[in-house]
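Hello,

Our lab assistant flagged a job as stuck in the queue for most of the afternoon. It eventually completed. Since we weren't sure the result was trustworthy after the delay, we are filing this so someone can double-check. Below is the sequence as submitted and the structure that was eventually returned. Let us know if re-running is recommended.
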Amino acid sequence: MSEAAEDRPAGGERRFSDRAPGEPPREGAGFARGIRSYLIGLGLAVGLTVASFYFAASGLVWGPALPMALIVLAIAQMGVHLAFFLHITTGPDSTNNVLALAFGVLIVFLVIAGSLWIMANLNHNMPPMRQGMSMPR
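-- returned structure --
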């Protein structure tokens, strides 16, 4: 019998002790432990969001360095979401999740890069506005 089948009762319903793929089985893992993990993730996510708004609104960070500070905070928040909410781990069972995430990042990169390429090409090939408006009809 597989590990997943042992964790489920006869009716097939899930227990609170279900674990993320790649996460090793824990003794005494239950509802309270799962909620604690989500609350820690929520606290970190809210803290990073508040820090981003605080840095953007105050003069605490030097003006030209502000975009880099916000990028660092955004990457940290993505890491919090991946670890605490999506349960992306380094275990062997998490390989499909990591591959799906990498494919999603690739698609987003291709869409953004393609859009920028098309806009740059249009900007280069369009005539200036003065030429277009002064043409005789």
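-- support follow-up --
The delay was a queue issue, not a problem with the job. The result is valid. Residues 20-128 form one domain. The chain has five helices and no strands.
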